[in-house]
Amino acid sequence: MKQLLTVEMQIAERARKYPEEALTNLHEMVDVGLLEACFASLNKKGASGIDGQTWKDYQTQKGERIPQLLAEFKSGKYRAPHIRRVYIPKGDGKLRPLGLTTVEDKLLQTAITRILTPVYEQLFLPCSYGFRPGKSQHQALESLFKEASFKGMRYVIDADLQNYFGSIDHQSLRTFLDRRIKDGVIRKMIDKWLKAGIMDKGQLSYPREGTPQGGAISPLISNIFLHYVLDEWFKEQIQPLLKGKSFIIRFADDYLLGFTNREDAMRMMEVLPKRLGKFGLTLHPEKTRLIDLGANTKKAQSNRTFEFLGFTHYMGKSRKGNLVLMRKTSSKKLNAALIRMDDWIKKNRDKMSVKEIIYELNLKLRGYYGYYGITFNLRKIRSYYQGTKRILQKWLNRRGGKRIWTWERIIKLVEQWQPLIRPKIVHTYL
């Protein structure tokens, strides 16, 4: 860890010293010590790539493999392996493609990400919260709350990019990278990752655009691309022309634009598709809309909510009677979480004792409250807690034998014998 921090500090200092120049020779910062530190940081239980090798498999060989990897990387002989594509369910019933690469490739991607991150942290704007050190979803939610509640940003553009990770234009990305990174070794490596073959259901293809979700370097590439296409453009070219105040809040490819002036918002709705189209990106026509949070007619009130980072946001009155932006767990997210809970208890009801099941459920509940336990959302996390109890009763009664788990007995179990963690607000912004 000290090795990582030292390298990152040195690169950050270089980036601050030469803010207007493209940096070279960054690949010299990659050495065996850095690669070993990056390897230790990888998810030890992560899914394997196309070679089937696990973290533990590589660990037994890393004394020999890591120096070889370093030599191949610096000489340019390293070849990016094919990516194994899998599909994971989304909240809307659809599937999201995920690219799984080999342990060794994850290791190298992680190292290059560590090298580039300090450079771009000098550049990225405060409005960008996704996959950045010291930034989080809750910070983005807090910023949104303040902008809409206290600064009058009642016109919100909820924009959705269609297939963003699969649409990133490689040539535009290279142009953006040229502004800060001209290390030939690193740039060639990024090109190899962009062109890596994708194995999907036995069929191999080579992409001409996009970057696979799942790669360690993909979030950074995503942020670099949208920094220039969206963040910097909005701040430097759009905001100075607006009549009223405005904001942009972005978490990876999920973003919102807010305005105090309706005309500004309407003009932005016209300009935004053209700007994105210039770089090969497309707005989802059914999921992109302008929300008027202050609407008071019945017809308009149906368009007063929007989804962002797993929450449904809407205007409501605080205890003091002030209009503020409130939030609750998105119905889709809540239902999906309960389905996952149902699947887990069903699979493990016969493998584990009741005590062990409760222990694992408490880990899941603690994690759930850690994200969704936010001001104004107590009712929804209570729904998750109650739903967990109902699911637990259902599957305990299907373990075989008599149905002994009445609702009264379940209550005693989760409140007295083996208590479940009760709902609580973890993040308070008022």
Short description:
48% of the residues lie in helices and 13% in strands. It contains 15 helices and eleven strands.
Give a written overview of the molecule.
The model has no long low-confidence stretch (mean pLDDT 93). It is built from 15 helices and eleven strands. By secondary structure, the chain is of the alpha+beta class. It has helices spanning 2-17, 32-41, 55-59, 62-75, 103-121, 137-150, 170-178, 184-195, 218-238, 262-277, 298-301, 331-348, 354-372, 378-396, 407-417, and strands at 83-89, 95-100, 155-159, 198-200, 203-205, 246-251, 254-259, 289-292, 306-308, 311-317, 323-329.
Mean pLDDT: 93
Binned, the helix content reads: 40-55%
What's the Cα radius of gyration? 24 Å
The largest β sheet comes out as: 4 strands, mixed
Quickly give the structural class.
alpha+beta
| Strand percentage | 5-15%
How far is the first residue's CA from the last residue's CA? Answer: 36 Å
Indicate the multimeric state: single chain
Residue windows where pLDDT falls under 50 for at least 5 positions: none
Overall body shape: globular
Spatial ordering of strands, largest sheet: 2-1-4-5
Number of helices: 15
Element order: H for helix, E for strand: HHHHEEHHEHHEEHEEHEHEEEHHHH
Number of strands: 11
